[in-house]
Structures are given as structure tokens and as C-alpha cells.
Amino acid sequence: MPRVTVIQVIYNSKRFIEPVFGAIFNQTFEDFEVVAVIAGNDDNGKELLMEKFPKVKIIDPGYNIGFAAGHNLVFSSSPSEFFQLVNPDMIMEPNYIEEMVKAFDDEKVGAATGKLYQFKDLKLKIEGFRDNKILDTTGVTISKSGRARDRGQHEVDNNQYDKLIFVQAVSAAGAMYRASALNATRCTLNAHSEYFDEDFHSYWEDVDLAWRMSNAGWKNVFVPSAVGYHGRGAGSSKKGYADVPGFIKHHSALNPRIRQLNYKNHIFMYIKNSPYFYPEFFVREFFMFFYVLIFEASTFKVLPEFFKLLPKMFKKRKYINTTIMNGRSF
Prior knowledge:
By secondary structure, this protein is of the alpha/beta class. Helix content is 36%, strand content 21%. The protein contains ten helices and 14 strands. Helix 6 (205-215) packs parallel to helix 8. The two termini are 28 Å apart.
């Protein structure tokens, strides 16, 4: 049984396969297996993966299973002690997994992330990616309003994040999870168990899981010695709300479905995990509502789906509070 299962959910990412999987198989840590879940293969990336990296175990459900359900499929079927997630556009340095595993010497650590840099430009070109020292994530912070941000994103790395510390949450782009922490915090409704929330499909399911782990007593840790490079198709605007024109420009460039998932899922994440419904949350959502109404009304196409799932989110909140929190190990 391999100690680590490396997982990637692939969605039409053929151009990244050789550098990303090449980096996986160049790791100094050797006790691992690799599983790829095919969510989209319009570019024939699956065939390239089978040709170039035959050791990869491939799961192809034949449809876009989504980021959350794709990973859950592997979480629930692999006996490994740890799961290393690798986004389709995330390239690891050779010692990435080795450094990540060390963080789990603390038995209370449930999830970890390395120091991820952005690719050099917004077109996600791979050439010269190591030349860039603009940070992508060093963990995730969550405010009382429910706003979650990748710590250090868009900052030049001047060694200001070189200390191993506990963080509120981690991005799944290059996260590692302890299997026992996943099992202790999975949510079960109507006989269906899930780790990442499958009603999210994609976006915010990682922060949702890490927040749930934190509430259950597990620690999320940032490991600065584990270095990777992430293309990230969607992230925060550089200055956030401090630069309204920049915020509008950033959001308008996103795929409409991404905006819809972002809007729906950030509220669901808060409903499920926040210990209290703070006033800051309602203030933020008030202004966000009118922003969406004025600048991106198409995002409201997600509202029927939102209201259909809303009662289920409160049921999940109740399950988390009464079952997971009451059964916490620490």
C-alpha cells in the first residue's frame, strides 16, 4: 500500500500534462501512487497521459464529474495514509511531497499546503515558470464576513512567508490531506458521504473542507519548504475591494459559470461552517448583491440552483455541528 496517493482531476488540460506529471514522477519521495480522474478530454489529454505516463491509474467516468466528486471518488477508495492533490496546472519542485509529509509528524495536522508561486503571465505559459517569484498562496485567511483570501497572493516573495505556521484554511491546488482527518470530517446525508462538498462542484470546496477540519479540531499548516508553481485560471483581484475598477475588470474577465459557482458557493461555505452569523457577513452580502445586480447580472442565473440547495446546506450545517463537532478528536 503506497503511503501517499497523488490525485489530479483533469479537465481538458493536455498542454500541462508533460511538465506537471513529469514533476510528479521526479519527486524525491518515492512511496506514492498516481491517480488521474478524467473530467474532460476534448483535447485528447487522456491519450497523451496513457502514452507518456503509463504508471498513472486512470479513472474515466465519461462525463464532467467535477473537482469535488472526482477527488471524493479517490478519497473513498484508496487505503493510503495521505492524499496529495495536484491541480492540472501545478508544477512541484522535486522535494515537494517529501517536505509536505514531514508536516504530518504532528498528529493533529489534517491538511497542509506548500508555498505556491504564480506562473509568469496570465496566459498560463509554462516556459520560464521558475523565474517568477509572485506568490499564489501560502494558505488561506477567512474574515468574519466570510471573505476568504489566499495569503500573500500577488505579492513579491521577499521571504516574508518563510515560517511554518498554522493557517485557517488551505487551497487544494497543492494541498495534502491526512486520510483519517478526511474520514473524521466527512459529511453524511441520506446515506451519501462526501469529503469535498459535491453540491459545490468546483470552487470553494477546498476552503469549506479546511474550515470544517479546523472546526473539528484539526490543524491546517503552511509548509514554506514545499515549493510549487500554479497557473490558476481564477483568483482574487490584486487589490481587492481597495481597487474597485480593478475588481470589476477582474470579475468581468471570468467565465460566467465560474462567477455563478463563486457566488453560490461562498455563501454556502459560510452557512455550513461559520460558528455565528456575524453582522459583517450581511453587510458584505448586501453590497455584493447590488454589485452583481449592476455589473454582472448573469450571475443571478444561479439563484434557482441556490435556493433549491439552500435547505440542504442548513442540514449539512446541523450535521457538522451535532455529529462532526461533537465527535471531534482533539
